[in-house]
Design a protein that fits this description.
By secondary structure, this protein is mostly beta strands. The chain has helices at 2-18, 224-228; strands at residues 23-33, 37-46, 52-62, 67-68, 79-81, 93-98, 101-106, 117-118, 126-135, 144-146, 154-157, 165-170, 179-188, 191-213, 233-244, 248-254, 260-270, 275-277, 281-285, 293-294, 305-312, 321-329, 334-343, 346-353, 360-368, 371-379.
């Protein structure tokens, strides 16, 4: 009997040591908003990234003065699950047991022990369910609060008996985001023109414009993994209208771009620092120039070197054309030949070094087929 009690005690201690063996976190992410609907994504992660989730009841409340949802939410209308519907699970459901509260019910049958869904490790996130709310008051607050202290709250491992430790569940609280109804991008020569419209704005400080550069590649040649890991940088800011119930139009022009591929997105910034990102737009600035050009050298004046840029277009059936780039002194004497060969269409930049020349004005000339262009540059010692 003593031996049995000892073994039972060891087993009891071991089972308690497994309790809360995994910490789970959660957050709300606004993924879409119109004048009538707010779509919110529930996401979770763990501290391990190796544990599979079993059954769960996840509860949260919402502000009924700002948003609403039907008393009996309908699957694929009011909500849809991402990772916990069918497959290893019984049909997951959304219920509304209280007027201002929602329960996310995920059911893994005991016959599927240890065969749940692996929940990713922080800082990654696993999508659970997207819920569509009707907007009651566009000027209200999107106030969604996790009910982690509810006696019905429970998130279990796939053995359906090991309770996961509740970590940081971040509430969604603040004015409803700006309603962005359109965001477009177009190319005008080597400029990209961004345009967007809002139907309503609340507490809107403005928009950060972000760009990712992937030139000189074209989108078709970029691996999908590289596209997902684009590094964005802010290139501009456009002031918002604060709070407005009228439609507002905005634009921003990204000028003098090199040929290549670019990505753009907007980050809407509230006065309290809250940020909401737009979709990402991908486009290409033509990889082939439309005409011959010869640019002013830079720097100018220069010492001891400067750079000269010129472009060669595709001319009819001729894809490779002869090109000459020469430098002359003010009297017309040739002092350097920088290019004398056939070139494909494209943008070229050539360095000119002048260690053997004295100060003065020099002429550089590019010739290709019937195209001739001449510019002056100044060497200062």
């Amino acid at each position: 009997m003593k031996l049995f009690n000892l073994l039972f005690g060891v087993l009891l201690f071991f089972s308690h040591s497994l309790l809360f063996s995994t910490t789970i976190n959660g957050r709300f992410t606004v993924i879409n908003i119109t004048s009538s609907e707010l779509s919110v994504l529930l996401q979770i992660n763990t501290d391990t990234g190796a544990d599979d989730l079993g059954g769960a009841t996840i509860a949260f409340s919402f502000d009924t003065t700002a948003v609403a949802i039907g008393d009996n939410p309908v699957n694929n209308v009011d909500y849809f699950f991402h990772n916990f519907y069918n497959g290893n699970y019984s049909p997951a459901t959304i219920t509304k047991p209280i007027r201002n509260q929602i329960w996310v019910n995920i059911d893994l049958p005991f016959t599927n022990n240890n065969n749940g869904t692996i929940v990713t490790a922080s800082p990654g996130w696993t999508d659970v369910v997207t819920i569509h709310f009707d907007i009651v008051d566009p000027n209200g607050a999107a106030h969604l609060t996790w009910q982690t202290a509810s006696p019905f709250w429970g998130i279990y491992d796939a053995n359906n008996s090991t309770l996961w430790q509740t970590g940081e569940f971040t509430d969604l609280f603040g004015p409803l985001p700006v309603e962005l109804v359109s965001f477009t991008a177009s190319v005008d020569h080597n400029n990209v023109i961004l345009k967007w419209k809002t139907a309503t704005e609340t507490n809107n400080s403005g928009f950060e414009i972000l760009r990712a550069n992937v030139y000189p590649k074209s989108w078709s040649s970029i691996p999908s993994g590289e596209i997902r890991n684009l590094q964005f940088e802010m290139i501009g800011f456009v002031q918002g209208q604060g709070t407005s119930t009228e439609e507002n139009s905005y634009s921003f022009t990204d000028k003098d771009l090199e040929p290549g591929s670019y990505s753009y997105k907007l980050v809407q910034l509230d006065f309290d620092g809250t940020k909401t990102e737009s979709e990402i737009l991908n486009l290409e600035v033509s990889l082939l120039p439309e005409a011959y050009t010869l640019s002013q050298n830079y720097p100018n004046p220069f010492n001891p070197s400067t750079k000269i840029k010129f472009t060669i277009p595709s001319v009819g059936a001729q894809y490779i054309v002869p090109v000459q780039l020469k430098v002359f002194d003010i009297l017309g004497n040739e002092v350097a030949t920088l290019v004398d060969e056939e070139k494909e269409p494209g943008i070229y930049e050539v360095e000119f070094r002048s260690e053997h020349l004295s100060s003065g004005i020099y002429i550089y000339k590019v010739e290709s087929n019937a195209f001739v262009a001449v510019k002056k540059m100044v060497l200062l010692r």
